Amino acid sequence: MAASASPEGAIERLVIENCAIATVDAHDTEYATGHVVVAGNVIESVGAGKAPEGLAHVDRRIDGTGHLVTPGLINTHHHFYQWITRGLATDHNLFNWLVALYPTWARIDAPMLAAATQGSLGMMVKGGVTTAADHHYVFPRGSGDLVAAELAAAAGIGARITLARGSMDRSEKDGGLPPDFAVETTEGALLATEEAIDTHHDASFGSMVQIAAAPCSPFSVSTELMRQGAELARRKGVRMHTHGSETVEEEKFCHELFGMGPTDYFESTGWLGDDVWMAHCVHMNDSDIAAFARTGTGVAHCPSSNARLAAGIARVPDMLAAGVPVGLGVDGTASNESGELHTELRNALLINRLGAHREAALNARKALRLGTYGGAQVLGRSAEIGSLEAGKLADLVLWKLDGLGHSSIADPVTALVFGPAAPVTLSLVGGRPVVEDNHLSNVDEDAVARTARAEAQRLARIAAEG
């Protein structure tokens, strides 16, 4: 039961004690044995030792012996719809992978997206994610209200969502990759994005749904849609998201089409700024990194997807040294079939050690910061989430680290990041459980799996029929 208001109107409390704590605050404060007190939807106190004596209206007390508490993980880039197209085109680079899968994706409808959303989000939440950003940019004609379908399905899981309302207006006939019937007109995409913002965006403290403006990528979107999308976002006061500098092919495409590289193109269209974050950013030179740092533009680092599609190794240590905000992303599960963010903590650390900085690239605590506070920065919510501090939202995870997989690793943060996926004993979003004893609290996991399987089969049949 979550901490909530009692019948007398007093705020009820949840207390977790006897656990290791990694706050990921500005000082990386940690406690070998400490407590967290949740009052309503916020953290009331965090500290060493037992919780304060005499707390009133304690609704639940948890003995966290053998556990580590961290902020909830924050996924900064995903494509939920891809849950029902996993395991396809497994030996392709990005452009060939897109060409292979767009004809299938272009047949998606509202029930398919709802099932894929619960599968994608459910998998992440089971693995400690409490906030997720989804970049949905496929809006086939006659597919129904996809934004409403996704948000309703996400609400059933209980996580916070930033829905980056994507768009594409450059189809095959214009030199793009998606089929003609899978794209929108420029005007239609802008109107639909504005409607999504007006209908669903909630900028208040503790909001469960925020909307971002998110044209898909330079090679599937016109320059006019990029420019007007930036103007719309800033007029409405929402964040902006797109794919950037993912592959060498994209770099070549930008030079051929626009006469400049991706970062210069983004700057020319109004797409650098502290209200912008971009996915991937693998092929960035020193000048690109400096531009991102100068403007405060954020990055969603997706190491598993970058490896799966042979895109390369992003220069994350250099970005961090320059002051670029960096978070982690699962990316779509058609290019990261595991679909959960713990993998990205581990792979961000390991893959970056293959780069120029070798063993000095990242350590366990830097990886955890990427997956928590870094993600909050990228999504513009670092005042609310991303660290365990009094007054912040009670989005936290209680990881079980005394089992076979972790028990011989003395340092709990090292155990979490370097070790196997840790079971989640409890995960809270605003003080409300979304996972208990390693199971989703709000949905039937088996039912979610059955529905996703059925919708994946239906999509495959429709795509095969052409």
Brief rundown of the structure:
By secondary structure, this protein is α/β, with parallel strands linked by helices. The protein contains 14 helices and 17 strands.
Describe this structure in words.
- With 466 residues, this protein is of the alpha/beta class.
- 35% of the residues lie in helices and 21% in strands.
- It has 14 helices and 17 strands.
- The strands form 3 sheets. Strands 1, 2, 3, 4, 5, 14, 15, 16 and 17 form a 9-stranded mixed β-sheet that branches.
- α2 runs parallel beside α3 and α4 runs parallel beside α5 (223-236).
- The protein starts with 12 loop residues before the first strand and ends with a helix.
- The model is unreliable at 1-7 (pLDDT under 50).
Features of the shown structure:
globular, 466 residues, single chain, 17 strands, disordered N terminus, 4-stranded parallel β-sheet, 35% helix, 9-stranded mixed β-sheet, alpha/beta, 21% strand
How are the elements arranged and paired?
Layout: E1 13-22, E2 30-39, E3 42-48, E4 58-63, E5 67-71, E6 73-75, H1 94-105, H2 110-126, E7 129-136, H3 146-157, E8 160-167, H4 186-200, E9 209-215, H5 223-236, E10 240-244, H6 248-258, H7 262-268, E11 276-280, H8 286-295, E12 298-301, H9 303-308, H10 316-322, E13 326-328, H11 342-352, H12 364-378, E14 396-400, H13 412-418, E15 424-429, E16 432-436, E17 439-440, H14 445-465
Parallel strand pairs: 1-4, 1-5, 6-7, 7-8, 8-9, 10-11, 11-12, 12-13
Antiparallel strand pairs: 1-2, 2-3, 5-14, 14-15, 15-16, 16-17
Helix pairs in contact: 2-3, 2-14, 4-5, 11-12, 12-13
